[in-house]
Amino acid sequence: MDPKPMTTKERLAIPRQAMPAQDPKERIHNFREVNLGYTPELAQQEAMRCIQCKDPVCIKGCPVNIKIDRFIKLVAEGNFLGAAKKIKEDNVLPAICGRVCPQEDQCEKVCVLTKKYTPVAIGNLERFVADYEREQGKIELPDVKPASGKKVAVIGSGPAGLSCANDLARLGHSVTVFEALHELGGVLMYGIPEFRLPKDIVKTEIEGMKKLGVKFVTNTVVGRSVTIDELMGEEHFDAIFIGVGAGLPWFMGIPGENLLGVYSANEFLTRVNLMKAYDFPRSDTPVFDCRGKNVAVFGGGNTAMDAVRTAKRLGAEHAYIVYRRSEAEMPARAEEIHNAKEEGIEFLLLMNPVEFTGNEEQWLTGVKCIRMELGEPDESGRRKPVPVKGSEFLLPVDMAVISIGNGSNPLIRQTTPDIEVSKRDTIVVDINTMATSKEAVYAGGDIVTGGATVILAMGAGRTAARAIHEKLTGTAPNFNEW
Amino acid sequence: MYNIVSAIFLAENIKKIEIKAPRIAKKRKAGQFVMIRVSENGERIPLTIADSDPEKGTVTIIVQGMGKSTIELNGKEAGETIHDIVGPLGTPSHIEKFGTAVSIGGGVGTAIAYPTAVALKKAGNYVITINGARTKDLVILENEMKAVSDEAYITTDDGSYGFHGFVTQKLQELIDSGRTIDYVLAIGPIPMMRAVAEVTRPYGIPTVVSLNPVMVDGTGMCGGCRVTVENEIRFACVDGPEFDAHKVDFKNLSDRNRMYLGEERQSSETASHKCRIGHQQ
Ligand SMILES: Cc1cc2nc3c(=O)[nH]c(=O)nc-3n(C[C@H](O)[C@H](O)[C@H](O)COP(=O)(O)OP(=O)(O)OC[C@H]3O[C@@H](n4cnc5c(N)ncnc54)[C@H](O)[C@@H]3O)c2cc1C
Ligand SMILES: Cc1cc2nc3c(=O)[nH]c(=O)nc-3n(C[C@H](O)[C@H](O)[C@H](O)COP(=O)(O)OP(=O)(O)OC[C@H]3O[C@@H](n4cnc5c(N)ncnc54)[C@H](O)[C@@H]3O)c2cc1C
Ligand code: SF4
Ligand code: SF4
Ligand code: FES
């Protein structure tokens, strides 16, 4: 089908196509995905809005430089499978990135339409194309280069590890992924909830990689079950990629943090997502019974939004976000903030907890907060919140979730002291190759950047795969041939 | 899936289970544990590695049936499988030649103390073991403990076997007899560990306890296992499970372990209800 010849003016006249979604009143009672996805018609209509810039600046906004203009052109032409192929030249997990990328800060931010109109819905289109390919059962196994005879170990099965493993397998190397948990996927499985990223999508992607020949070994904590030196020595791996994420929850260090009912976001989300506590007692792992209770989540990132919306779905009467800055500074995706509001999440902004209070049995009963106002900008350029004297008040809550970020897990660093780490305990790498200070050991994702994004982790995995391939074979891979 | 090589009851409700897990068998050190998921929808529960055989590639755990997961595990026989096992987790026991070392185990805590007692003996210590149980039938690992001890004592709360009284009374007796004790390891129910800490505190005897907070991942990712040691938050699964007994906030630990009491009861009830339905069919 040829696209209708359209003038730029006509294209600009098409409004941005909204993503159909579950009704908020309904969705707060289930864990099914909120967004329902474009229909082919909606997708084509939206793709028509792209004016096919001569200099497609959107590409520079994407950390992995997806050829956005070209895949969107294919969508407009109705060639959805061709579009999927085009995206996959640069991004192995489009169904996931289309859903979770902070597009408003990346590709869509720089789209030329953004200034005067609304940007092309690049994320929605990416998601549509990937879903279409999967739902048609048309995911083609990519070509795999002849076996190189080299063995690479990938540590951690989050987006960084998965993308690195995928590229290396396609380049003909024998790849084994070691994962600490019993389930593969990292934060995609245990952190981001089903209502935002259906787990079947992650599983399908991983099944595809198995077909490519990637071996997955779960229940193996590198640093405890086996060390990096042992993998390189006794187990004869030629190179290692470390993608272990940032998984050490920070607490606030305020009184009462150990009361019953106070969780880290990691624990709360892991119990619900990975251990299926929403299905208790059919699954064995319990979680705080939120029904009819008041829940406060501290933080303003994606994790905080996920936690508070999870609490709402578990039946919380009041579910609050308590954030010490204003909405403009919230690092969460704009769409999730919007969705949270639709779902009745109450935002308590410019507010900081100072103390948790409990009853005699040590159950949480409330949190004492202080109001904040924005002062001078800090190092991050965001205006620094300062407490307003005498403005303390008590917010009655039964459960609290602390979601103020993660540090890095000490296991690898303790058992491999020759890998250089920064003051913040992140692994130091050469950003062009992701090589660490240790020979033949590479790292990428949150363990290098601190908590960041799925797409950055995937990009790092690919950069490392490229460098590892070069190191093992002496030649640079050409991903554009894929 | 991991194969169960052998499974035998040591006492009522306490089972010794040997599981094929070669990587863990090769690596584990005294004081470390595994996380086990018995079945598909199972919880991840922590269990100490009591023993291992690197040649056979097996690890041994000793499990007391407490609730849903442990009772389900104790129902397993040789030839059956468990869904997941991961380890060895936790920081190994700090072992050196202290001189005279007393290892105290209460109930199933004896199983947890056993591997460390073996290591203490190997390091050249004079090892005294005190194993407490409520009653004679619940005494476990008596012969194993004797074999690694220079002196072995058994105490029962009801006096049905060995010394009549608590492990702390026996410990106090040893201290009062004027012997030098250089190191104490105590593992068992929280009240017992707390009592041992109070016995040794006035004498400044270095005392270590192995804490048993509720865990989820066991890798330092969730913070659910946090304990308060010297007013600081520590994660028992990576920083522990062994800590200086004189610095542990036992009250906070026992409070936090009550968190899922209601749910644990519900889970066990659902499980036993299912069993009953099964019997009727
Ligand atoms: C709740 C939540 C919501 C988020 N929402 C978004 C979003 O909407 N958009 C977005 O772009 N980003 C989001 N993020 C951030 C994003 O998920 C991360 O930046 C990304 O997952 C990092 O990928 P990674 O591969 O570096 O690590 P991870 O995804 O953390 O994966 C690391 C894996 O390594 C394993 N591992 C750790 N230690 C070891 C070891 N010693 N041995 C073996 N395996 C080990 C872990 O179990 C884990 O599976 C969110 C994060 C969270 C927690
Ligand atoms: C480091 C460590 C080593 C341990 N070693 C042994 C051992 O060698 N043998 C043994 O019999 N027991 C051991 N335990 C205790 C064992 O993990 C619990 O008895 C078990 O988790 C109970 O699960 P359940 O479903 O059978 O009982 P439940 O009815 O769920 O709980 C019974 C008790 O176990 C505690 N508990 C429940 N879930 C967990 C969990 N996920 N993590 C920790 N505690 C929990 C509860 O606080 C409660 O007091 C150890 C615990 C820790 C932390
Ligand atoms: S991967 Fe993310 S940033 Fe790149 S085009 Fe897709 S949605 Fe935009
Ligand atoms: S910048 Fe916007 S309009 Fe231009 S090619 Fe990219 S998506 Fe299309
Ligand atoms: S069990 Fe999760 S951090 Fe220790």
Gist of the model:
The complex is a heterodimer of chains A (482) and B (281). With 482 residues, chain A is α/β, with parallel strands linked by helices.
What does the model show?
The complex is a heterodimer of chains A (about 475) and B (about 280). Chain A is α/β, with parallel strands linked by helices and about 475 residues long. Chain A folds into 3 domains: about 10-135, Alpha-helical ferredoxin (Fumarate Reductase Iron-sulfur Protein, Chain B, domain 2, Orthogonal Bundle); about 150-245 and about 405-480, FAD/NAD(P)-binding domain (3-Layer(bba) Sandwich), CATH 3.50.50; about 250-405, FAD/NAD(P)-binding domain. In chain A, about 35% of the residues lie in helices and about 15% in strands. Chain A has 20 helices and 16 strands. Chain A has helices spanning about 10-15, 25, 40-45, 60, 70-75, 80-90, 95-100, 105-110, 115, 120-135, 160-170, 185-190, 200-210, 230, 265-275, 300-315, 335-340, 410-415, 445-450, 455-475; strands spanning about 150-155, 175-180, 215, 240, 250, 260-265, 295-300, 320-325, 345-350, 350-360, 365-375, 385, 395, 400, 405, 440-445. In chain A, strands 3-2-1-4-16 form a 5-stranded parallel sheet. In chain A, strands 6-14-7-8-9 form a 5-stranded parallel sheet. In chain A, strands 10, 11, 12 and 13 form a 4-stranded antiparallel sheet that branches. Chain A starts with 7 loop residues before the first helix and ends in a 9-residue tail after the last helix. Chain B has about 280 residues and is of the alpha/beta class. Chain B is about 30% helix and about 30% strand. Chain B has a 7-stranded antiparallel sheet with strand order 6-1-2-5-4-3-7. A 7-stranded mixed sheet of chain B has the order 11-10-9-8-12-13-16, with helices on both faces. Chain B has a two-stranded antiparallel ribbon with strand order 14-15. The longest helix of chain B has 20 residues, at about 260-280. Residues about 275-280 of chain B have low confidence and may be disordered. Bound molecules: flavin-adenine dinucleotide (2 copies), iron/sulfur cluster (2 copies) and FE2/S2 (inorganic) cluster (FES). One iron/sulfur cluster binds near residues 68, 103, 106, 107 and 455 of chain A.
